[in-house]
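pinned: reference chain
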Amino acid sequence: MNMLHLVQAKRDGREHSVDELNWLMGEVVKGTIPDYQLSAWLMAVYFRGMTPTETAGLTRAMVNTGRRLDLSSLGPHVADKHSTGGVGDKTSLLVAPMVAACGVPVAKMSGRGLGFSGGTLDKLESIPGFRVELSAHEFVAAVRTVGLVIASQSPDLAPADGKLYALRDVTATVESLPLIASSIMSKKIAAGANAVVLDVKVGRGAFMKSLDEARALAAAMRDIGREVGRNVRAVISDMEQPLGNAVGNALEVREAIESLRGSGPPDLMEVALELGTNLLEMTGRAGSTDEGRALLVQAINSGQALERFRAFVANQGGDPVIVDHLERLPKAPVQYEVTAPSAGYVRVIDAEAIGRASVEIGAGRKVKGEKIDPSVGFVLHSKVGDAVREGDSLATIHAAGKEDAERIAPALLGAFDLTRDPVAAPRVIIETVK
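pinned: its structure tokens
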């Protein structure tokens, strides 16, 4: 095979064969293709796109470059959940123990936050002692013991994707639908779960800004799942405003635990219940949406979901006492109120602006590997549609120092837009692609 021919073929809009894609991904892992040729191919894919069959072939080729976990010994169904990223999105910390408490094993590999999109691993590491790096044996053993594991992505799963993504990030080819879909799905397939629900975020604080883009990505990933024999559904959910009230790692863990106790914010609970219900239906644990939702609510009301979270934390080295004593989570020394300058109704809370402010205060990373402060962040006291009076607290800033809080306060206030006229609360769940 010849890389120049593959670049020319994609430049001219021709479809790659399975053999060509397998060869290409193999050479990517070996490092034999010059970056300039691989960059040219990525740009050709960006402009020319890929057919559904071709995208599935690329996904399989990526999976074949590394190890694939075998979870078949854990039962006929193993569930996984993935989010395309957002602000205040801590749903994995709810969905996983809720579904596991209903008798469906959950095996999830997660990532860290980069930019204004928070990472599940960073949230979990705010729990004292919690381990996210597990061997393959420990990963499987955790599911067998507790019915639940959330750990870091193993570097030997779909290694071609890691190499491709690093190049996409510096060649303006990240926003390619087939490349996004194959990147996500290659890791999900390699991780071994056979029932995957995808939370595709759309809006200001999401990667996909329009509903058409979100629908296209959801359909592409569903189609890949079908091509490779996985049961995949995608829930499209709103990310115009942050999800829930808390933004910041320890603050989001606190909110997740409060939600598992039954006192979570309505929008967060709605997304978690929708994702969890789909997983229970997909795995046959529930015969209908109503039955699945009832099982999840029962898992919360009975305390079983919270107990599953406690066992999960303890099994991965974390301090399970935090479940009962939230004050043991990292706490910022300064709390600073951002108040409403006038009375009115909340029309907009710009999720991206909130996310970028959280990075500036130290809750997220500007560059990969940067150290974060698990204690800092924001707690919102109003959501879109709420009425506020002049002087009411819109949000509390949790900061390492008063100067940090005062510096970030204008940006946080600027994310809120108030109006005199009543505003309807937005839909949280937009649609489900089955």
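why pinned: DSSP finds 16 helices and 13 strands in the chain. The mean pLDDT is 94.
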